[in-house]
Amino acid sequence: MSRNYPTRPETGVLLDVENLATGFKTGRGLVRAVDGVSLKLDRGKALGIVGESGSGKTILSRSIMGLLPRRGVVRAGEVRFEGARIDQLTIKQMRQYWGKEMAMIFQDPMTSLNPLMKIGAQITEPLKTHLGMGRETASDTAEKLLVDVGIPEAHRRLNQYPHELSGGMRQRVMIAIAMACGPTMLFADEPTTALDVTVQAQILDLLEEQRRDRNMSLILVTHDLGVVAGHTDEIVVMYAGKVVEKAPTDVLFSQMRHPYTEALLASIPKIEQPSHTRLHAIAGRPPDLVNPPTGCRFAPRCQYAQDRCRQQEPPLTAGEHPEHAYACWFPVVTGGFDRPAATDATTDSNVAVTIGGLR
Amino acid sequence: MTLITDTTSMTPTPLDVPPAAEPLPKQSRGRIHVGFWIALVWVAALLLMAIFADQLSFIRLPTTAVKNHGRSTAGYKLGPGWNAWFGVDSTGRDVFSKVIYGARTTLKVGLWSTVIGLLVGTFMGLIAGYFKGMYDRVISIVVDIMLAVPPLVLAIIIVYRVGDLQQDRPGDPGILKWFTRTEQITVVLSLLAIAPLARIVRALTMSLAQRDFVLAARSVGAKNFRIITREILPNLIPAMMSVAFTGLALLISAEAALAFLGFSVETGTPTWGKMINASYRDMDKAWWATLFPSLVLFLTVLAFNVIGDRIARHYDIREAAL
């Protein structure tokens, strides 16, 4: 793992997002997809962003990275990367960050590789353009990268097209491409959602391994609390464009306060439950982000909601643990809640158990 | 339907047979139809004869007067037969060799205007579809205008006006003399090809630019030029090929239509449209002089259409499988 990447400090704050808001202009009005989100991420740490579809988690990661189209998008707030503001930068200036400082992998490896380019060409291209490598060095590095991400017969793979690889292999190739220029931060946008359950845990383990080896920060975006449980240091739960709860991973699972977090966790099937146990679904849908409801945005779907919830929006307040914060007037008390899997990765969901057993 | 019943009625292959021996994948890949091969052979034969007409002994020069038993055949005096396969025309020239030499002009004009249309149309479509906004609006208006102008009127204006400008006047030497009739026709026809290609490329680019692999390329810092040339353009090629072939058929018939109306290449250079124009009034006397060029024109247009259609379907299947 000795590549000539620039030396970087080992610790300290890498990413600092303050009050970030992103809206889309539509015919019906402004859709507030992300509405005042603040978060901090240290070097080498992993942050999970959790929420259901439409909660703004994907838009949040793309607006941090500056990958959203500029037209029709309204942005506010500040994003600091290595201490420098990057939210005001033009696309041209952002290109210095893309690939070299931050990279992203996507949900569906079937569509995120160019079907007409060989794997080798897709990995070597950023190496040649960003790191100025020659053809042979780039090809050697690409092979090493493929070995790093656990692809067998790496040399032969360089000459194959994406359709010759399985979904899990393609996601590994995506990770190799993202790793190519040694980014300090990786956004993984639902990296396991489109994959077979047997492959999901392998990919998550690979991401963690890469993060530790390279002292890279990771933002893991997912709808599955089980995915983030064993693989992150901190978790941010989002609902309707806002952070409703954030805490270090073990604190969140032991002292979760927000009813939405609780509901998300309850919706995960658990291995210790007898078969045919009914799954808890969260009734209703996320609110319309053009006209969000007054008061708490989760109130219409919350089983504990009271009048105050529907009238006044709860602020993000600190919990007992200094790094724990939640936005709820009537937080749930999780004492009797069976502590699920936060510390033990092999039981975080039945999915991971299957894998653990297989290996 | 027949394909499905075919496969189900087949005896099931034992599992230990290697997958390569199974006939199924080859069939579901879409058989290349007989029509496609006939079309390809037709086009290839026509192209080869047109290119090597000077070397092939069975093709006369289109300017050679055909003699029948030592006598002139001017005025359709010889029908189709061994001496002249497609008969002779009013000036006693071999219709077959004129058809072959006409193919030269027709294919040259058609291919060049398709190439120009492809280059300009693809460029316009890529810019409009990728950068959107003002670029898209301006290019779309230009394309709409190009589609709204009747091509015949445009051709007549260009050919007349350029011809006028080439005349020497007292104290005013004719300009644009370098601009030959063949080039003028090519330019007119390429204007016809640009607009539809630009539209298709624009639409495809817009949908391709939304695809994840383009975003993935952007997220590792690829520049626009790279994304357009490496990620989008290669994915456009199948669709462009099919449109180009169908468009080529259209341009060939458009060229013939122009020639039929008297707006064609320099006198002395035969084209199919000109041949039809020169002899259609004498059809009751000499059907061959009109029918054979028309038939060749019809078959060639059909062949290009069949090829274009086949390519479109072939790549449709692959796209769906991706």
What this model shows, in words?
The complex is a heterodimer of chains A (about 350) and B (about 325). Chain A has about 350 residues and is α/β, with parallel strands linked by helices. Chain A is about 30% helix and about 20% strand. Chain A has a domain at about 250-359. Chain A has helices spanning about 55-65, 90-95, 120-130, 135-150, 155, 165-180, 195-215, 225-230, 250-255, 260-265, 305-310, 350-359; strands at about 15-25, 30-40, 45-50, 75-80, 85, 100-105, 185-190, 215-220, 235-240, 240-250, 315-320, 325. The two termini of chain A are about 25 Å apart. Residues about 335-359 of chain A have low confidence and may be disordered. Chain B is mainly α. Chain B contains 11 helices and 2 strands, in the order αααββαααααααα. In chain B, helix 3 (about 35-50) packs across helix 4 (about 95-130), helix 7 packs antiparallel against helix 9 and helix 10 packs antiparallel against helix 11 (about 290-320). Chain B is globular and about 80 Å long. The chains are: A alpha/beta (about 350), B mainly alpha (about 325). At the A-B interface, strand 6, helix 3 and helix 6 of A face helix 8 and helix 9 of B.
Task: Give the tags.
heterodimer, A: 359 residues, alpha/beta, eight-stranded mixed β-sheet, four-stranded antiparallel β-sheet, 12 helices, 12 strands, 30% helix, globular, B: 322 residues, mainly alpha, MetI-like fold, two-stranded antiparallel sheet, 11 helices, 2 strands, 67% helix, disordered N terminus
Instruction: Tell me roughly what share of residues is in helical segments of chain B.
Output: 55-70%
Average pLDDT taken over every residue of chain A: 85
Q: What is the CATH top level name of chain B?
A: Mainly Alpha
Task: Give the strand order of the largest sheet of chain A, numbering strands 1, 2, ... along the chain.
Answer: 6-7-8-3-9-10-12-11
How large is the share of residues in beta strands of chain A? 15-25%
Instruction: Tell me the Rg of chain A in angstroms.
Output: 21 Å
* Strand fraction of chain B: under 5%
Oligomer description: heterodimer
How big is the Rg of chain B?
25 Å
Q: What series of H and E elements makes up the topology of chain A?
A: EEEHEEHEHHHHEHEHEEHHHEEH
Classify the helix fraction of chain A into a percent range.
25-40%
CATH superfamily heading of chain B: MetI-like
Which of globular, elongated, flat, extended, rod-shaped describes the shape of chain A? globular
The pair of chains with the biggest contact is: A-B, 32 and 20 residues
| Derived structural class of chain B | mainly alpha
Q: Any idea how many domains of chain B?
A: 1
- Uncertain segments of chain A of ≥5 residues (pLDDT<50)? 336-359
Task: Enumerate how many helices of chain A there are, as a single number.
Answer: 12
Give helix and strand order of chain B, one letter per element, not per position.
Answer: HHHEEHHHHHHHH
**Which spans of chain B of ≥5 residues are poorly predicted at pLDDT below 50?**
1-15, 17-29
Give the tally of β-strands of chain B.
2
